[in-house]
UniProtKB/TrEMBL annotation:
Main location: membrane
Kinase as UniProt keyword: yes
Entry keyword set: Kinase, Lipoprotein, Membrane, Serine/threonine-protein kinase, Transferase
GO molecular function: ATP binding; protein serine/threonine kinase activity
Keyword Glycoprotein attached: no
Topology versus the membrane: Lipid-anchor
Gene3D superfamilies xrefs: Transferase(Phosphotransferase) domain 1
Name listed for the protein in its UniProt record: Serine/threonine-protein kinase
UniProt organism field: Actinidia chinensis var. chinensis
Record localization: Cell membrane
Length: 144
């Protein structure tokens, strides 16, 4: 049985897990990282408790991507990187499993995102440009 909030729609209907079900769950985790929210948070008001339901309008409109971002970042992030990260997330969260990417394509997209993030200066204050990218930190910890 899958964890509520991370289950792909087809799993909820059929009870069968596939590789594409895992891609959906990974998309939920990516969305949690972007938003700083939990997949299911009963402490939030109705309409905001389910992260996927809450985020759908933002994921469909590129101009609203910024509204997804964890407020703790206080606007200090590269805008282009946000757009790439949200696009990857949205692909993983496609309602129909056949439209979701395969994991190797996600890895390539995330590697590209990490390489570009290091070249960009964060949106907002210049002083934050010295902050290392979380993706870079993770990659550095595995490479040595």
């Amino acid at each position: 049985m899958g964890t509520y909030g991370y289950c792909a729609p087809e799993y909820a209907m059929s009870g069968k897990l596939t590789l594409k079900s895992d891609i959906y769950s990974f998309g939920v985790v990516l969305l949690e990282l972007i938003t700083g929210r939990k997949a299911i948070d009963s402490s939030r008001k109705p309409g905001e408790q389910n992260l996927i339901v809450w985020s759908r309008p933002f994921l469909k409109d590129r101009r609203k991507f910024v509204q997804l971002v964890d407020p703790m970042l206080q606007g200090h992030f590269p805008l282009r990187s946000l757009h790439h990260a949200v696009a990857i997330t949205a692909m993983c969260l496609q309602e129909h499993a056949n439209f979701r990417p395969i994991i190797s394509d996600i890895v390539v997209a995330l590697e590209y995102l990490a390489s570009q993030t290091n070249k960009e200066s964060p949106r907002g204050a210049a002083h934050s440009s010295s902050l290392p990218s979380p993706l870079q930190q993770g990659r550095d910890s595995f490479s040595g």
